[in-house]
Design brief:
alpha+beta; 10 helices; two-stranded antiparallel ribbon; 5 strands; three-stranded antiparallel β-sheet; Arc Repressor Mutant, subunit A; 2 domains
């Protein structure tokens, strides 16, 4: 068994995207040829064990993907993501975006107290929110409601949401979401 297989699998899983052989070699402190050999061994191990994941390689890039044998299961999962009811966590994230948006992911995470990446992906897939470059920092994104969200609720503008002005312009929430998790959310005296 190649000792690089487990670190390669972990790295590819964490990346969640294609990585080049050179990137993998650099991350692992190995030569590209050693990484190629380990990838070949890992691919064979995954296939022989009938695992739920497999390696896909295109030119010099490789990615950990779901095993094609489980395609129908993954297809149903993705379909449910589009059509099933929203979870409480997704609704919570949507409410934060509705009343505090446009808002960055770190600020959403601060309000929720947990990582919101999966909830944001779900809302983006369903077309309920949109991601745009931040006007304040071109390196980051902000999330806001989409026209589809308004259309689904039969609203013509955000101000039609219940208590929108009160919650959108709340000074305590403004300090909390803009300052981060270490700020006190007690009102000013």
């Amino acid at each position: 068994m190649n000792p690089l297989c487990a670190p390669l699998e972990a790295l590819l899983f964490a990346a969640g995207r294609p990585m080049s052989i050179n990137q993998l070699a650099k991350q692992l402190g190995q030569k590209p040829q050693q990484v190629r050999e380990a990838l070949s061994a890992l691919s064979e191990q995954l296939a022989q064990a009938g695992r739920g994941v497999a390696l896909t390689q295109l030119e010099d890039k490789v990615q950990l993907v779901t095993n094609p044998a489980h395609g129908p299961l993954i297809e149903q999962f993705v379909k449910d993501e589009f059509t099933g009811p929203l979870s409480r966590a997704a609704l919570e994230t949507l409410a934060i975006i509705a009343y505090r948006g446009p808002i960055s992911k770190p600020h959403i995470d601060t309000v929720r107290g947990v990582n919101s990446a999966i909830m944001l992906r779900t809302l983006l897939i369903r077309g309920l929110v949109e991601r745009k470059r931040s006007a304040a920092d071109a390196r980051s994104y902000e999330y806001g409601l989409s026209f589809d969200f308004l259309r689904h609720l039969g609203l013509t503008q955000l101000a039609d949401l219940p208590k929108y002005d009160e919650l959108h312009n709340n000074a305590v929430m403004e300090r909390f979401t803009k300052a981060g998790p270490d700020v006190s959310i007690e009102p000013n005296p």
